[in-house]
Amino acid sequence: MKGRTIFAMLLAYLVPGAGHLYLGKYARAVTFFCVVALMFVIGISIDGDLYMLGHTGGSLLRFLAALGSLGAGVIYWIAAWMGVHGDVTSITFEHGTAFTITAGLMNLLLILDAFDIAQGRKE
Asked: How many domains is the chain built from?
């Protein structure tokens, strides 16, 4: 694996779209950043929760949800640092949590897309 590939994947994890920006795919970079960030922010704003690795309680599903949420990169870490927690009594709690997890999972797929572009498998 090339150093360029590893760097693109690291950038793609840290900031959604940054790996694509590094690889010269400017339109994709902006689009991917907007989609992932908007989904995450919507999730938080409608009382969605952040799953955290230290708070899984031994549950496999909570652990997998935490891995999915972590996929959002620096957006996740900023929200966790700010102490964002959803309101379980809110009618939109589950939908918001689904948005935050989906944003993370989408960014994980975008890391794979950056990998394929950096390896020359796709344009």
From this structure: 1
- Residue 6: name the closest of 123, 111, 76, 102 by CA: 111
Chain-centre distance of CA 18, in angstroms?
12
Could you tell me if 51 and 66 are in contact, meaning their C-beta atoms sit under 8 angstroms apart? yes
> For residue 104, which amino acid is it?
G
d(CA 123, CA 79): 33
123 lies in a domain? no
| Contact yes or no for 72/107 (Cβ under 8 A) | yes
> Could you tell me the residue range of the domain that residue 74 belongs to?
3-118
Radius of gyration of the chain (CA): 15
Query: Which of 64, 47, 56 lies closest to 101 in space, CA to CA?
Result: 64
Dump pLDDT digits (tens) for 43-73: 999 999 998 888 778 889 989 999 999 999 9
Q: Is residue 26 part of a domain?
A: yes
DSSP assigned state of 55: G
Contact indicator for 88, 95 with CB cutoff of 8 Å = no
Predicted structure pTM score? 0.91
